[in-house]
Every structure is written in structure tokens, then in C-alpha cells.
Design goal:
By secondary structure, this protein is of the alpha+beta class. The protein is built from six helices and five strands.
Length: 205
């Protein structure tokens, strides 16, 4: 093997190892920066008022955010907290513009919560965006239209599966795959390079 081929091969190998790490580190950096920029200034003022000097340490906002998030989860897990939160939520949903934004964000978060993802038990191939081309989809619901069974199929986009299309199609036109939902999402996020590729289970409807 020539020096040029050796360098090229090792460079590509290193690239494939480093890119996931760099992307992960970048996402963490963006999240931390956002929290710091959002909460940090308020904490600096509070600390200055309490201690009469600059004692704020970068990263404190993230730690406090994690603690508050945990305590919120703990609070709404019991009956009292859940009831109080439901009442507050009803008030928020009465505010014209706020209710639309809050409702949309909450629906999106719930759709991709672990409980909801587990409920998307059926992975299918659907002809999309036109006939003769297939996309991976998740069956989210079943409805009857004119006495014929139809499926609501969510077709995620790649590499970001939180957006996509809802397509209503006849159940008989779907190809059901022998594939777990988690594996389907990995396949979509990895741009089709994941080892867990689609396998038809022989069921068409």
C-alpha cells in the first residue's frame, strides 16, 4: 500500500470516529450556551445582590437547570403536583397566542417521548414521495374511510426524525417490516447506514 493510500484510509477512518464525537460535543455546547445565556444573567444579578460581589461561576446555570428539571419531574409525578400542574395548564391554554405555541411544543415532545415511541409498534414501507419509491414510516393510528381500513403513517425526515409527514393511506398498500421502532429511527438518523436495515415480514396488510 502506497503512502498516499495509507494516509487517505487512516484519515477517513479517523474522520468517521471523530465526526460523531464532534457533533455530540457541539450539540452539548449549543445547549449549555443557550441555558447560560438565558438563565446566567439573572443568576449573576441575584448572586451579586446576595453576596455584594461577583461570585458567579460559568456552568452554575446548567447545574441549577438540571436540578430544577429533576425537581419539576419529581413534583408532577405525585397526585398533588399533577393536579396543580393540570390547573395551571388549563389557564395557559386559555391565553390566545400562548396556547397555540404551548400546545404545539407539548404535542411534539409527547409524540417523541419513550411511551409514545413504544406505541409506534409497526414499521412500514410506504410509497413516497411518488409511486415506485419507498420511505420508512411508523403507523400511528388506524381509521376507516368509506368502509375501507386506512392507516395514518408518520414518515420522518432524515437526519432529523422530529419533523416529517402524516400520510393517510390504505392499509393494504403498506409493506409491514420486521423492524423495531428504535431500529427504524436509528436507520433514518444514520442516513440508511445503520446495520439494522428494513426486513419485510411478509405481511402486506
Amino acid at each position: 500500500m502506497s503512502v498516499a493510500k495509507h494516509l487517505k484510509k487512516k484519515f477517513i477512518t479517523g474522520l468517521f470516529v471523530l465526526i460523531p464525537l464532534i457533533v455530540t460535543a457541539y450539540i452539548i455546547y449549543v445547549v449549555v450556551s443557550f441555558i447560560e445565556g438565558f438563565i446566567g444573567p439573572a443568576l449573576k444579578n441575584i448572586f451579586f445582590q446576595v453576596f455584594q460581589r461577583e461570585v458567579y461561576v460559568t456552568g452554575t446555570a446548567c447545574i441549577i437547570f438540571v436540578v430544577i428539571t429533576y425537581l419539576t419531574g419529581l413534583f408532577v409525578s405525585n397526585y398533588f403536583g399533577k393536579t396543580l400542574f393540570s390547573r395551571g395548564e388549563r389557564l395557559v391554554k386559555r391565553i390566545p397566542i400562548v396556547k397555540s405555541i404551548y400546545g404545539s411544543v407539548k404535542d411534539m415532545m409527547e409524540a417523541f417521548s419513550s411511551e409514545k415511541i413504544k406505541s409506534f409498534k409497526e414499521v412500514v414501507l410506504i410509497e413516497f414521495p411518488f409511486q415506485g419509491r419507498y420511505a420508512i414510516g411508523l403507523v400511528t393510528n388506524r381509521v376507516e374511510i368509506g368502509g375501507i381500513k386506512h392507516c395514518a403513517v408518520f414518515v420522518p425526515t432524515t437526519p432529523n426524525p422530529t419533523s416529517g409527514y402524516i400520510i393517510i393511506t390504505k392499509e393494504e398498500e403498506l409493506l409491514f417490516l420486521d423492524m423495531a421502532t428504535d431500529d427504524a429511527l436509528k436507520y433514518i438518523i444514520s442516513l440508511g447506514t445503520s446495520r439494522s436495515g428494513p426486513i419485510w415480514n411478509g405481511k402486506r396488510s
